[in-house]
Each structure stands twice: as C-alpha cells, then as structure tokens.
Write a structure and sequence with these properties.
Structural class of chain B: mainly alpha
Number of strands of chain A: 10
Strand order of the largest sheet of chain B: 1-3
Order of helices and strands of chain B: HHEHHHHHHHEHEHHHEHHHEEHHH
Strand content of chain B: under 5%
Distance between the termini of chain B: 97 Å
Strand content of chain A: 25-35%
Largest sheet of chain A: 4 strands, antiparallel
Order of helices and strands of chain A: HHEEEEEEEEEE
Oligomer: heterodimer
Largest interface: A-B, 57 and 73 residues
Helix content of chain A: 10-25%
Radius of gyration of chain B: 30 Å
Number of helices of chain B: 19
Number of strands of chain B: 6
Strand order of the largest sheet of chain A: 5-6-7-8
Shape of chain A: elongated
Number of helices of chain A: 2
Distance between the termini of chain A: 54 Å
Chain lengths: 179, 488
Amino acid sequence: MAKIIEMSEQKDFLSEKTTRRHFLFTAGIAINAIAATLFAIPILGYVLSPARRFTWLNWISLGPLTDYPDNETRLAEYINPFKKAWDGETAKIPCWVRHLSGDQFQIFAINCTHLGCPVRWFSESGLFMCPCHGGVFYADGRHASGPPPRPLYQYKYKLEAGQLWIYAGELPTLGHPEA
Amino acid sequence: MNGLLKSTGKWLDARLQVADAIVSVAEHRVPRSSASWWYVFGSATLVVFILQVVTGICLATVYTPAANRAWDSLIYLNYQQPLGWYLRALHGWGSDFMVALMLIHMIQVFLFGAYKYPRELTWVAGCFLLLCTLGMAFTGQVLRFDQDAYWGLGIGASIAGRTPIIGFKVVDLILGGPIIAGETLSRFFALHVFVIPALLIGFVGLHLFLVLRLGINEWPMPGRVVRRANYIRQYEELVRSDGEAFMPYAAQKDLVFAGIIILSLLVTAAIMGPIGPNGQPDPTIIETVPRPDFFFLWLFALFALLPPWTETVLMLTGPVVAIGLLFALPFISGTGEKHWRRRPISVIVVILIVTTIGTLTWLGTFSPWSPQMEAWSAAPTPIEYVKGRTPLELKGALLVQSKQCRNCHSLGGEGGLRGPALDDTATNLTRDQIVRQIVQGGGNMPAYGKNLSPPEVNALVAFLGTLHPRREPPARDSAQPAIPAMGN
C-alpha cells in the first residue's frame, strides 16, 4: 500500500504538464467512468425492476357465490394474476373465505401476520392456528394469542355476476397489509 | 524416466513461473506452537467448501432451477439419477459440516486472540466468510424447493416487510415480484450458484493471503501482551528462533484432520441420506409445519419467544448490531492479552452465546410454543381418564378432543406444549377458575365463550374436575367451603 502511494506521489499524475501520454490517460479514465455509468443503468434497472412497479393488485374471481355457504369458513384458491409459465404450483395462492350471511364476507390471507406461515382453520373451536410460532386468531380474524402483532390480513372483496371477487396479487406483510 | 520428469518440470516452470511461489508458501516459517490440533479447523472448513463446490457443480448438471420443475428434479435426483441421492446427501450434510467447522474455527480464533494486531482484517475477511456461508445455507435451503423452502421464503419476506416505509419494496426485490413464484427461485439460484460463491472465493483468497503474509497466530501465553510498537518484531523473532517450515511440520495435522473430516462426511451422508425434499411447494397444501434447517432453528425459536412488542425493532436492528459488533471486535480490542485465562469476559461471552444459541436450537427442535395441529384427532384420551366417569364427564372428555384443546394442552404426555398439561387441572384451579379460564381465556389462551354452549362448558368443567393425582384432592374455593368438591 505504501509503495502504491509512493509511486503515485513520485509520478504525480495530476500536476504533470500536459503531454500526449497524460492527456490520453485522463481521457481514458473519463471515458471509462462514463461507460461504467451507462453500463450500470441497465444492470440496475434490470435487477431492481420488481420494485419499480407501484401496485400489483388486481380483481380476481374466487368462483360462484354458491361455493360459500352462510356461516362457514372455507379454503379457496386463486391463480396469481402475474402467473408465468414456469411458476408451477407456486402460482396458486390459498385464502380463507368466511361467509357471514348475505353480502357479508370476510376474506383472510393465508399468511399469519407474525411471519407469514399458513394459518389453519379449525371450525370446531372457531380458531385459526399457525404452525410456526403459535399465533392464534378468532373466526373474525382478531388476534387470540401468540406473537402476531395485528389481526389477520383481509382482502377487499366485491360481489359481481354471481361471483366473489377479491383484490389481490401481493404477499401481505406488515409493511404492505393490503393483500 | 526421472530425467524426463525433471526436464518436463523445468519446461513447465519456465513458462508457468509458479514454482517459486509454491515453494515459498510451503516453506514459509510458522511458530512451532501453531502446529497444534487446535489450528486445524480453518483448513478443514476450506476443504469442505471445495467439496461443496464439486458436489454443487454435479448437482447443477441435473437440478432444474425452475419453480415448476425444481421439486421433480430433486425427486429424480433422489430416486432415479445414479448416485444422485448420495451427491445430494454429501452436499446437504457438507453444508452442515462447513457451518459447524467454521463456527468452531471462529470460537478458537476468538479465544486465542488471533484477531488482534496486526490481523484485524483477517478477522474481518473471516466475518464476510461467515456471512457468505450462512447466505449459502439459506439460499441452499430455498433451492431445495419444498414446503419448508416456500414458507421459509414467506418468513424471510415477512421480516423484510417490517422495514419501515420501504418494507414492501424490499419484499418485491427479494422475491423478484409481489409473491413467491418462478422468479423467486431463479433469483435464489443466481445467488446460490454465482453471486455468493464468487464472493466466497474472493474472501477465501484474501483470508489465506493475509494468513500467509501476516503469519499464523502464535500460541498465546498469559502475560505475552500484544503491543503495536513491537509485536511484529517479536513475531519475526519467534518465527526465527522457534519456527519450522509450514510443510510438513504444521501441515501434517491439517492433512490428517481434513482426511478424517472427509471420511466422516462420506459416512454421515451414506448413513443419513439426502436431506428432503419434503412436500411439493404447493401453497394450497396448508397441512404443513414449516421448519428451517438446523443452523437457523435458533432464530426460528427466538422469533417465537421474543416479547412481541420488541420484535420488529430487534428483527431489524439486531442483525445489524450483532454483525457490526463482530466486525468491530478487532478494532475494539486490537491489542493486549491474547490468552483466554487473562480474558475472562471473552470466555464468558463465548459461553453465553454458545449456551443461548444451543438452548434456542434445542427448543427449536420441538417448538413447544407451537400448537400441535394433529393432536386433537391423533392423540387419544388416556384410558384411565375415562374409566368410571359419568356421562357428563365423558361428554367433557370428548369436547377436550373435538374443540382442539389437545393442540395446546397435553394429557398423559401427549399433545401440545403451548399451554399447561391438563393432567392435574383440578388441583390447580377451582371450578370457577376453570370456567373463567375457558370462557374468557387469558394468559395467552383464546376465549372459548363464543364457541361453547353453557351445557358444553358444564361438561368440560366436569371432566377437567376429575383430573387430579390420586392422592391430591381437587382445589376448593376457600371463600365458599359449602360447595361440595366437584368431580369424584
């Protein structure tokens, strides 16, 4: 290291009189700095592209309303709206549909609000239980016990053409709770 | 023949120019005290890393890094590809060997004060190697694209999602999109196979270069204090007066130990077989109990046991502080005593960290905080608890099963460990207390008031009232002695 500093001091590149060699060296650095910047733009744009989109949410059908009887909570699944041909089974996303009565639904994300594990519904005790860290939620999604910091995530929904639609497409997390 | 070999060697060296470098590395003098069985763990870690590269490249020739095919290709590797099962076993257990050896190496280096002047940056390079290796372990777990991998990604994303403001952007970047899908696996494949190995090889090179140039740490002696002014002169003196050539004097123990490690890995992999994959990475199969690999179990346990209000802060700042302290160590205590007997705080810190992580790992293996999802239908009520009971009590026994009480409470040693065992409920709680606990919950128990009718509560309490050891009577409310003891 010391040798490098010594060498650069002896040569003193910057204060040297303008010679052809010196000019070329400076120009070489400048050209490469510009080239590196230009090269970095597409690389960064490519790698960071998943974060450039503002929202991924879409209206998705969960099938006919008749699939969801009153006063029952059922597992439903939908295909992620940005499905790629090579997604395989991961394109499917499950969610819990609770039909209270009439137009009243609650559609919960499968992900526990603690760390995202799949909560399981137990109709006998009316509880959602998480297999990871012991989070438990009541039938209406309220926190019942364990570490989760908030109620279950809920999808927005609408009823149209005899179908149940939810506004979905993102993995819900605490930073972005609209599933 | 000998002459031909010699002339070939000369011809090669005239063109390759490496003989001098190799000889100077092999013959560089090391303190005699460093030729110890305590100094073999770093080289063994490197050997296992090289094996990981070899087995990893082999696996990459068959494994298919696409979300719709990865799991199938793992099953193919396990059952159809000749010796695929064994290479997967070598790679999987090799990663455990590598992490374990690296941690032992790190503890040894810490206790021997080897990170002190002038070897601060050797330690820093080692810390980068630790991070890279853990990164390989996590991304490798993702490439084993099964249910644990899928929900492990969910856990990672959920932690990242707690970052204030930019949280969900970070999630999108990690997953390569808004949810776990095809791009996620491709991203982790690129990390596991290109990015992190490149970093690892770079830091291994730096680490070894520094060990060669600065010299291996001498065996520490109490009272031999490191001072910036004269350490290097003292070390050179030591190497001159009490040193030996690295080859073969110090290298022989490295060689023997590395050989033993490779043989143990070969045997372990043959006996234990490949690790996973478990079920298909289909998120609609929710009958799953996601668990991380062994070296992340302690974190998994920590997330269950931290007080919830501290979690977000600790999850986000904890790693930064811990890694920061690790990197800062040689700059905080870069000089002074090296011997562990003169550094009691260092010894205590090691013992504390090892016991903490060890205990958390042990807890993680059976996760007492988690409900056992199948217990209510899989763990029967012990026969002696239903013998000679009244119909009402039997109805209660049935409710303990059907209302999933057993998922969190054990009977006769079977069932969840989330709540207390129910075997002696009647000695711990009076009838009124049991009713209150069931209906209102509390102390981390959900309230069951809405899901139990009054007759059901009555039956449950009647059954729970019979649960007490033979010689201990059920608890009684001392304020109301007139109420007869419940149950039998």
